Amino acid sequence: MSGRSERTTPSDGGEAAIDVEGLELVYGDGTRAVDGVDMRVPRGEFFGFLGPNGAGKTTTIKVLATLLSPTDGEVRVNGFDVRTAARKVRASIGYMPQETSVDEELTARENIRFACESYGVPRGEHADRVADLLDLVDLADVADKRAEEFSGGMKKRLDAATALVHRPPLVFLDEPTTGLDPKARNRLWDYFERINDRGTTIFLTTQYLEEADQLCDRLSVILDGEIVAEGSPAELKRRVDGEILDVQVEGGETERERAATVAREFPAFGDVTVSVDDEGVSVTAETARKHGTDLLVALRDDGITVTGFDVRAPTLDDVFLAITGEELSADPDADSEMHETEGVVG
Amino acid sequence: MSTPGVEGTETASSATDDLSVNSFAGDVWVNFKRWNLKAVRNPFVLVVSLVQPVIFLVLFTEVFGNVAGRAVEGALGPGVTYESYLVPAIAVQVSLAAAVTSGVGLVNDVENGMFEKVLVSPMNRTAVFIGKTAAELFRIAVQIAIILGLGVVLGAEVQTGLAGALGIVGVGVLFSLWFVAFSNSLAVITRDQESTIIGGNLLQFPLLFLSSAFLPLGALPNWIQTFARVNPVTYGVDAARSLMLDRDVMTVSVIETETFGGTLDGVVPGVAVLAGLGLLLGGVAVVLLSRATSADVR
Question: What is the pLDDT of residues A113-164, one digit of tens each?
Fold first, then answer.
């Protein structure tokens, strides 16, 4: 299920790419966006930072990228203090913000060239790097078209390319695939894996658990400004005991609630967690597979019509539900964090 | 998916000590180039900020030429055509119109994320804004030169010759500074394109008409004369006009001077006022911009 979760992270010989101790960030209105976060990301790791909207993901990434100054705590990025050596931090990171940021009046080539110039890439290397990056993100064919003509996915790819011109050892990707169709998303994933395979440390925030599961070596889950879980996707999934039986039932909320009651009181399951969703119920139990059919019979005997069912291993969604008690919103149009704009204002 | 031609980007730099950044001048140059490229890419903005002044130049000289010409001759004596009188005012109008777009560019950058992208790069932030402003001043200089050329075609004469013409361009550019600063301040405060455009444009016509731009102050009602004396446009137009006509036509008596002799008596006070105003509003813009780029939590 997870393509990379079992991969060992490179041994950390020296300083970590990211070293955060006791990070706190309190906005002017008193909102405590980040509250005592500790984290250490070794070099070369593909690190995922998960959480629902407003949990503190973007605020944290903005502190790491020197766009926001921490209220308290020690934050070192590539060995540099974000407060006292901000310019060195900036020179040593790539940053792909949540909102696509390309100059639409310029062509793809000009956007990448401007990034080369911004980061002081030696002039003699511009042409080669621009060509390489255009190839890497598959925009070579449209290199001389203005970005305003590009689709959302193409702009995202261009944005990602501009974050890499200086070959940064660490790249921040803030919800890079939000709002993209699955095909464009897969293409970006492939691209992120390529740059990670070259040794680039990647710090990814996402609301898509599938994305984190697919890409990340290790994850942290943030909720209300605090880290509530850490580990590889596989480790996190092991935190959900047993398997999951999803049952779809006919009728409305009443029928679903009745089905949930039947499942909760079903003696064969023992320790069971039942949640009601839009289509039916989700039952988490160690014996969900073994006694699943018995539950279906019991539901039928209770006069509930089952329209479908599935027994599966837990996904990160289930982990998230177990940890946070809420489902992770995967709505691409969902709002970004409250304070996103204020972050720019400063 | 294959990985075509990625040899050059094969490995991320593992050490952080080979990170390069530009010099201050390098950062200025990078941003100067970007904003010039954007201006060329977006000729609509260039043309639009020229169209209105050109219409004014042609229509005013054709429609009001006879009437206004008499007032001008009354104030400045015979031999001064309305074309020659008007061209310096149109140069200042170009300067105003073009300066409005400065803040619009900034708002655009904020809206499309380029502002944040620049902030997260190692470029010196002061250099970034200097580069952007320099590109805008360069554009304004080109536009004023175009207006001067057109004015000459329509019959205006630059009495001080090429040096004077360059001086007029210089006065126009200096004049634009305070409005560029004002426009950027509006941009930072409103963070909205429409508000920035409207805020800038709203001021344009009152500033132009309540000044010595189109008629000698003596031909205007008292209340306008009063306003005109504190209106930056009067100082810009009179300084440029002194160069155009090769005589001191600074109409504001408060700073009348005979220190330099002749034409310069009309130019220097105007330049001094505009420089002071540019510094003042420039300072405000710098404070607002540095707050906007600061990482301090708000």
Answer: 999 999 999 999 999 999 999 988 889 999 999 999 999 889 999 999 999 8
On chain A, the residues whose CB falls within 8 A of the CB of B114 are: 101-103
User: What ipTM was estimated for this complex?
Assistant: 0.83
Q: Region A23-38: what's the mean pLDDT?
A: 91
Within chain B, which residues score under 50 in pLDDT? 1-17
Q: Chain B interface, mutation test: which of A26, A103, A157, A185, most B Cβ atoms within 10 Å?
A: A103
Q: Alpha-carbon distance B66 to B82, whole Å?
A: 8
Angle between helices B125-153 and B82-111 (to 10 degrees): 150
B37 to chain A: nearest residue by CA? Answer: A106
Look up the domain containing A175 and give its range: 18-237
A39 and A78, same structural domain? yes
Q: How distant is the Cα of A210 from the closest Cα of chain B, in angstroms? A: 20
Asked if B114 lies within 8 A of A119 by C-beta distance, the reply is no
The half-sphere exposure of A106 on its side-chain side, counting CA atoms within 13 A, is 23
Q: Which of A102, A120, A194 sits opposite B22 (nearest CB)?
A: A120
Taking contacts as CB-CB distances below 8 angstroms, the residues of chain A near B118 are 118
Residues 6 or more apart in contact with residue A153 via CB below 8 angstroms: A180, A181, A183, A184, A187, A188
Give the number of domains in chain A.
2
Q: How far A317 CA lies from chain B's nearest CA (Å)?
A: 28
Q: Report the domain count for chain B.
A: 1
Contact A169 B1 (CB under 8 A): no
Instruction: Quickly tell me which residue has 């204020």 as its tokens.
Output: A342
- Give the structural domain span for B220: 23-293
